[in-house]
Design a protein that fits this description.
It contains three helices and four strands. The protein is an alpha+beta fold. Strands 1-4-3-2 form a four-stranded mixed beta sheet.
Length: 97
């Protein structure tokens, strides 16, 4: 089984849909997985699984906002297209961190 760490900037519609389905009311501290990366930095992520992969989606304020604002309008969403990405505008406040 493939394991993938995904930043919110590279979320596909498929992964975002899985996140929204798994955490329809948002996520809490108990849902967050914490681990150290290769640079010994602590990373916080949410886990979602498909049949062939486990995705760890890095947690950020932008991820929470994206999940909140995600609209599953069937006219705009093609569930068969895994390669399409969700466009997320830059947040100047997070760049300052």
């Amino acid at each position: 089984m493939k394991r993938v760490i995904v930043d919110y900037k590279k979320l596909t519609n498929e992964i975002l849909t899985l996140l929204v389905e798994k955490y329809p009311d948002g996520y809490g501290d108990d849902d967050i997985i914490r681990f150290k990366n290769a640079n010994n930095e602590t990373v916080e992520a949410l886990e979602v699984r498909t049949e062939d992969a486990v995705y760890l989606v890095k947690v950020s304020t932008r991820l929470a906002n994206t999940m909140e604002n995600f609209d599953e309008d069937e006219d705009d969403f093609d569930s068969g297209d895994v390669s399409s990405s969700v466009e997320i505008p830059d947040d100047p406040e997070e760049d300052e961190e």
